[in-house]
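Lab notebook page, bench 4
Experiment: in silico fold of construct C2
Operator: M.H.
Input chain length: 513 residues
Purpose: comparison with the prior construct
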Amino acid sequence: MVYLAYGIQGLTAIVGTFFVKDYLGLPASFLAALAFWAGIPWVLKMPLGHLVDLIWRYKAGLVYLGAAMLSASILIMIGLLADRAAMEAIMSAEAWYVAAVLLAPTGYVVQDVVADAMTVEAVPRLDPAGQPIDQARRKLMHTTMQTLGRVAIIGGGVLVSVANVYLFAGVAAMSEADKIATYIFIYQLALVIPLISILGVALAGYIKRRDFKRLLAHGFEPEEARLQLDRPVQQTTPNWWILGGSLVFVAFTLGMGLTNLPHNQEIIFIGSMAIVLFLMSRLMRVLDQEARLYLLGTAIIIFVFRAMPGPGAGQTWWMIDELAFDQQFLSVLSLIGSTMALVGLFVFRRFMAERSIAYVVVFLTLLSSFFYLPIVGMYFGLHQWTAAMTGGIVDARFIAIVDTALESPLGQVAMVPMLAWIANSAPDHLKATFFAVMASFSNLALSAGQLGTKYLNEVFLVTREVTDPITGQVTVPADYSELGPLMITALIIGLLLPLTAVALVKVSRLRSA
């Protein structure tokens, strides 16, 4: 339910965008800086993860704290829309908005750290008879647990997509007062987000009390019943290497993010990677030699797979300009993608559990490369040929819809084995810490992919048409002549590098989960 709440957060995204555009005088540079600061709570996930392990018995209180922060953020926005004058009597509307923007991610990350660790705790190590559960069955249980987490997040996104289609129907033709009333209603509706996470805690408490009464009815003494229900908690002592390293990571990211040094992004990436690898090395000391080999091999495969560059924004610009994909059609593609991702999680659940991560990565690499071919083909006129052969039925939009429906599940199928591996490897007393550090490592792979995308776009220059808003004169002409080679290069890199990483792990002493 915490994950579901996180998935529904996009409910206010469109309203927030229009509120800033229409009612606040904040420049784009300030908003870019604010976006940086809004990302800082996620940088804090590593020290927060270790803190959660240290105060694990109070985890419900942390969920309540996160919910309070989310509620405060939403209520601030309601106040700004409903009675701006009263809010400005205390401080400026811009200051209130900044507070709302910073409160929301802080609330989400506090809840997310707890939820990640609870997905580890939810999978038992012993069966009802007190016997250890075999590794294969536990792997399936972890995969199921992580699948349900992704289903909750994506399901929340699907609900938001459907709700936005309904809530914004005809909003363009509304009067200003009606628009504001609609915006207020959406923010009021968003108060369900923190409520859902709180209900998750309440539901867990109800289930525990129900099971306790059931055990008493079966003749257990109260103390025996509590031992049956309460998972033994291994005492966690502060790991000052992890806390210190995490704080260095935060300080480094903050310091570099606020500077304008040349190659700033590269310096942040290299420094962050060094710190995270150091923290991983400290965590690996609690694992045996065999587990370390599995962790290293799996980490390398996942990192390379997630670090693959893409074609960048130029591909979307080309689809809008050349294929005439408008906002509504792109929204439809997004909804189809989210829906099919949900379907794919259920279809591939056993496949993800029964196959190694190396096998899954090879399968997904081959499949995603194959599904990308029609998009590359459309750049060279594939849709024109298919439309001519089918009387206009199989046109660009038809190909895009089918390709999105087939390709969308792959990204989520790749995520679940990775999360299940992290959960399965995490020691009981360091589950939140382990999850936070390994998630940071896998997220750095995405940063590497973004840098790779930047480099590809520097080699293959793609520009969209930019016109002066006053004179209407074209200041930058559209040029998609190098998009084809860019897409082909991204396709080849995305195919060869993950396969090479898997091959290298297989021929070395390393293993993959």
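Observations: Strands lie at 466-467, 474-476. The two ends are 28 Å apart (CA to CA).
Next step: discuss at group meeting.
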